[in-house]
Amino acid sequence: MSDRRRITGPESALPLVFAPTPNNQSTTKSPQEKTNSGIRNFFIKTGIVSNCNGSCFLEVDNTTIIVSVYGAKPIRGSSVTSASFSVMTKVSNNLEELSNFTSSDLSHSKEEKEEQKLAKEDEYVTTNQIGKTQLSLVEQKLSTYIQTAFLPSILLEKYPKSSIEVFINILTNDSHTNSSLLSLITWCANCTSLALVDSGIELKDMVSTGIAKLTDDQTVVIDPSYSNEGRKTVGGQEVRAVASYMSVTDTVVGLMIESEEGVNGEMIEKVIDGCNTMAREIRSNMNGFLVSTM
Amino acid sequence: MSVEIPRVVVPGQPIVPEFDTASHSADHTITQARKYLSGPGTTLSKIPTGPNEEVNAIVATLKGKTVISPKSKDKTSSASKDELPVNEFLVSVVNHQTPRVPLPKEGDYVLCRVMKLTSRQAFVEILSVDNQSSILADSGVGSNGSLGMAGGTSLVANVSSGSVAGTSVFSQAVGATNASLGAHPADLGESFRGLIRVQDIRATERDKTQVVESFMPGDIVRAEVINIGDGASYYLSTAKNELGVVLSRSHGGRGDMLYPLDYETMVSVSGHIEKRKVAKPF
Amino acid sequence: MSEEFQLKPVSFSPEVLARIAPELSLQRHLSVGVRPCLRSFQEFKSVQINPQLDSINRYTSNQGISSKSTVLGSSNIKCGNTIIFCTITGGFIETLLPNDEADENVKEYEKIYENSEKQENNQQDDSLSNFRTVYPIIEIERGRTGAPTDEEMIISQTLHDTLLNSKILPKESLEIDLGLKTVDKDNNEIIIYPNESKDIDSSLFQFPRKYSFVLYASIQVFSRSGPILDAAWLALMIALKSTKLPCVYFDEKNSNLLNDISSLSSKKSVKTGVVNAKSGSQIICDPTKSHDLKLNNSDLYTTTIGLIELDKDFSVEIEDVENNEDFKALSVDKHTRNEGEPILLCDIEGDAEENAIGSRVVVIPDINTEDDDNLVSVTIIGGGSKVTKQSIQNSIGLAKLRSKNLQQQS
To answer: Which residue, among A205, A245, A289, would best test binding to B if mutated, counting the most B CBs under 10 Å from its CB?
Structure first.
């Protein structure tokens, strides 16, 4: 069924298939140096989009994100006493690799997962998401996470009969291994937080997000970067989590945990503590930034 | 003990507790109790102060500067000899860099554009509140492919069609309008709808007013919000001297600008007269 | 009423006036010689061409993510406040005629056909079928979701058509010269390309079918403040200039009869846009080798000029302004044009301008030729103020200046 509203090119065109880069030639950028606190340096700029109410641009390593907030905008046809809040994520068309790796995260059987992981060693990269009309799985997950995390923080009752919409645009992303979804969530959430403040919408509190990983030897690493790791071998007790907090009341508003093996309560506690540490640090960074722009 | 009040705040930052004491005497005895009320840009919520303690505090909801202004209160009413006088203060957060998102509330004056007339009411689209800033950050101009061509409006011809997404009334080419009806994608530049009932147009002679002698499609009208209404539209009224048509063009929008003559007449430069419910210009 | 009667409309804040009465707002500004966006009439928006986005290109980046990227070219420009990202990706398609030498009959037929065609027209090389274009999809962020708006569709189509008609992309640039992946005498896998060295036997490179590339462009626009055709075209041109096409080879090892057929029937899910291509496909792109995309004259830039007539009814007389130095610095063009001629405004920006300006002239001049008057494309849209011959000439002049300027910048 052709999409008649977009110019999609000839029907019989096939995607390009790229052979995997031979190892001796692949250049991986060394991960950015971390600051003393263990978090990578990130660059923020608010107010860059002029046709929306608030916006923020965030860049960390190779990932760049623009978040725009439109609201409060009128919505018709529903009798509501408070605003509706929605989040829409869009990953740039050229970042197909995100959807490539996600399918492995979401497959349920262990054998399937192993197989896909090994297959990825020898991975052929294909292209073409031209003209897609539905959200990919990554986009759905990201949107759901952000919406759940920010909903409690917005004073919706102050905006009756309107809607607040957040648009997240991921322009470039560094997605070498699994769990870069969690890293993406972290930075999208932090960027969204700043965009919401920039828009002048009243918030109960700001939401800040941290990501941490519990390694095999039970040490907690915050803001883990993956560029130099290559593929992790299957097995090993690694737990990764991203958690969002409303800092002043220390309330958790969003949480996502990943692990190949099972987890127990103690591990979850440790990794969440790591997230909390990073979230606090980021919150104080954001505070400093906001006060300096006044 | 009084709390130090931060000057610049970010959302979520507590400003002051709800109740506080102050001292005006030299020996630091407490002479005054203060109650803080939450104004624009703040909210009252519970802040944890200890492992199991919570305190009500005024918390900022915006990024900006704090402003604390005393509310006048009759001091004699509550104070007996043993009680401390309680003074009320209003706490707000202002930010002049970010324009506040304006939403119409009861009692606000709004500027709106007349879309459609029936014998009983006028349907309008609300464009801005209190003459300050437009409601929508992006008005949607240009999105439906029209070039914003100047010329007569075809709104009169399209009275039954209802919405015309976002393009300026004075610059509607008929072709473009028709192209944007029907299968137009999700609304861009969608704005709040308002309703002015015939009995709310004027304060006097309310039963003799005719909608078509008060407004024409395309007019810009200043009106007051009398009710937030239901999901469909706000209820507006122009029943005051300073409310009514402020900008209009003759011949349904195709002609010259009209200027106010008196409370019910507007005139164009060429001398052409039309009836409107005119707002008193200031 | 005892007050003095004034024929003056009430006053509004400039932002509100631009929304409710854009023509009035614009006329008032123009009558004192300024524009709502505070640029002078013939001042274009400043353009910044940032190479930052190079990091996602597959073949030109020196950063780590290139190994998985499928992006062949990209650009990132900032035009005034508007930010535009453009990425070029590719696909391949089988070209219709089989390789000449493979089919004797076809060769014969072509000989006959060639002769008759040569007699017809000498402009064979110039006909449109010898050129290709890119398939663009543009997304302008305006706070809405759903199907593309009219504007997006119109711009995509305009970019597509203009690129084709300006003959920038010859079809030879997209033709694929297939290499071959085979084993050498030591049984190592090697990939060889034709024309790489002299001793390679060119008979190795006989393939049953010919292929060529198909290029797609994805353009994202943020912070739109006026018509963006000019900026979108610029982004596309810069992306194309930076595009590297992969070297493609034929993988013998994966040769299953079935694969040939099945790879041609890869299903493309319309919803998710993901193509279920088998990795057993035989046509593979080299992960590291690439070559430039050859373009014909790629220094073509489009310029849109808005035309508006000054309406005396709306003119504002402000006496103090005439003598105010600061104001004079802003209002450059007040007296430099003839009466009755429309004012030319460059780079339409803002609600008031975009709503009120009904006539436009869009020009793509060719600045690389000797002939000073060569124009690649001219579009004149009327309906607003009258379009006079003088204004068309002036617009073309402005477009040339702008193009030369951009050529130096990029």
So the answer is: A205
